[in-house]
Design brief:
With about 475 residues, the protein is an all-alpha fold. The protein is about 75% helix and about 0% strand. The chain has helices at about 5-25, 30-40, 45-80, 85-95, 100-115, 120-135, 140-155, 160-170, 175-195, 210-215, 245-270, 275-285, 285-305, 310-345, 345-355, 360-375, 380-395, 400-415, 425-435, 435-465. It is globular.
């Protein structure tokens, strides 16, 4: 099938999905599966491979998302029910003042996002975001959107995250050099993007059913209405009113999985692969294990401090799962759509068409990555494809090690923008924050694109001086 037809199929698929979800008001889960099925058939995937391709996409996505979302929600639920999120928010709002709260949380997110995967970090910080919003009477989107965008920025551009690490290996870039060069660029991108986020209009957005709406229920926040009718916290039963955990306790519980992941990640980089030490550190630094440890510690510490019975503790843990069930299913369906787009060859068709244009290599790397990101959703796939296609051309061009490093970073920023309906991260952010698909496209998609373009322009500027 020709590249032109494949690209047309991709465009029609995205347009149809937007129509079904926004205009027809169809369930995003059903719409994604329906469009994925139709796209697979139209793109020439054999009939016997259509369902396996869809199942593979669901499995690959949920394999990494389901455990993390479930345990992250449980950790957040324990902290939330005990009043820990509001306790932390009250403490820091009193110390910093309302005006500095958003900036402080965003800076923390940037630092925490360096060793921690985007989805894990955002899920861990979600109840804290909601707590700050409630205490400071701020629109939760004004905190949640820049926090998520900053965490995604370091996720796509800085080792030890998978996209930049793999791209560095393909292109022969030293990971340590890449960190030293990319870190100040990411920091400046985050600052510019943070101020750009203030221009995104969110006050008129009505939050749908979501963890954000559930947390802020009954609270009027900065002009944002919260549409929720349930006034009881599920799974709490008749809990005795006890003083909330202190800010220090909450900080330790939040930082515990992050520190564990960081120790494992840094440790793996300092020992030889395939050794016993490497394998142990790999297990310790795995996100599911780190979150499982954090949940168990919170179960014991918060449960004991609040004098909850064992039955109450178990009930609170279970009550976290229904709230994130939609997030998990829709995220998995987004993985189905992305896998169909990749398997069909649509991504390769786009890459080949762009390579034929012969534009400057650093610009080409960014354009290939951002186009693939927009077309098939995965930032990692976009970055790796761009790196693979341009590895030989960059050698032929005689790039210096520093120029190669900057060109690699440019590709990484290409994987940052245009997060939309074929990206599992889009569904995690929008479903947690209570954004509709339309509002998500107007806010989250626009903001990630701004961050991506700013990061690339700063990288290109640095490239011109080396």
């Amino acid at each position: 099938m020709s590249a032109g037809i494949l690209l047309l199929i991709a465009a029609i698929a995205v347009a149809l999905l937007l129509f079904l979800v926004i205009k027809v008001k169809m369930s995003a889960f059903v719409g994604l599966l329906l469009v994925s099925f139709g796209t697979a058939l139209a793109a020439g995937i054999s009939i016997q491979d259509v369902v396996p391709t869809m199942v593979e996409g669901m499995g690959k996505t949920l394999g990494s998302v389901m455990i993390v979302v479930g345990l992250g929600a449980m950790l957040g639920r324990l902290i939330e029910v005990a009043g820990g999120a509001e306790s932390l928010a009250h403490y820091f709002t009193k110390k910093l003042g309302v005006a500095k709260v958003i900036g402080a949380v965003t800076i923390a997110a940037f630092i925490l996002g360096i060793p921690v995967f985007f989805d894990v970090g955002f899920i861990i910080l979600a109840p804290i975001i909601f707590g700050f919003a409630k205490v400071a009477k701020l629109n939760p989107l004004k905190i949640g959107l820049p926090v998520a965008a900053v965490m995604l920025t370091v996720h796509v551009a800085l080792p030890p995250h998978p996209g930049p690490v793999a791209a560095a290996e393909i292109l022969g870039v030293n990971a340590g050099t890449m960190i030293l060069v990319a870190l100040p660029i990411c920091a400046l991108t985050a600052v510019i993007g943070f101020f750009a986020a203030r221009w995104i209009r969110t006050d008129s957005i009505i939050l749908g059913e979501s963890p954000a709406a559930a947390f802020l229920e009954g609270t009027e926040i900065g002009g944002t209405a919260v549409s929720s009718e349930n006034n009881e916290s599920p799974g709490t039963g008749t809990l005795q009113k006890i003083a909330a955990p202190g800010a220090l306790t909450v900080c330790v519980l939040i930082l515990l999985p992050i520190v564990q992941i960081m120790v494992g990640t840094v440790g793996m980089m300092s020992v030889e692969k395939e050794t016993t030490a490497h394998n142990i550190l790999s297990m310790i630094g795995a996100s599911p294990i780190a979150l499982l440890v954090a949940v168990l510690v919170a179960y014991l510490v918060i449960g004991g401090q609040q004098k909850w019975s064992l039955e109450q503790r178990g009930s609170i843990l279970d009550s976290a799962l229904p709230a994130v069930a939609v997030i998990v299913f829709v995220t998995g369906a987004g993985g189905v759509f992305a896998n169909v787009l990749v398997t069909s060859g649509i991504g390769k068709a786009l890459s080949d068409a762009l390579v034929a244009t012969h534009i400057p290599l650093i610009l080409m790397g960014f354009v290939i990555a951002v186009t693939l990101r927009a077309s098939q959703g995965s930032a990692t796939v976009a970055i790796l494809t761009a790196a693979g296609l341009l590895a030989q051309p960059m050698i032929d061009a005689g790039f210096t090690p520093l120029q190669t490093t900057l060109a690699t970073i440019a590709m990484c920023f290409g994987g940052l923008g245009f997060s939309h309906i074929n990206d599992s991260g889009f569904w995690i952010v929008t479903k947690y924050l209570g954004l509709s698909v339309k509002d998500g496209l107007k806010t989250w998609t626009v903001l990630t694109t701004i961050f991506g373009i700013v990061g690339f322009l700063l990288t290109w500027l640095a490239f011109l001086f080396v």
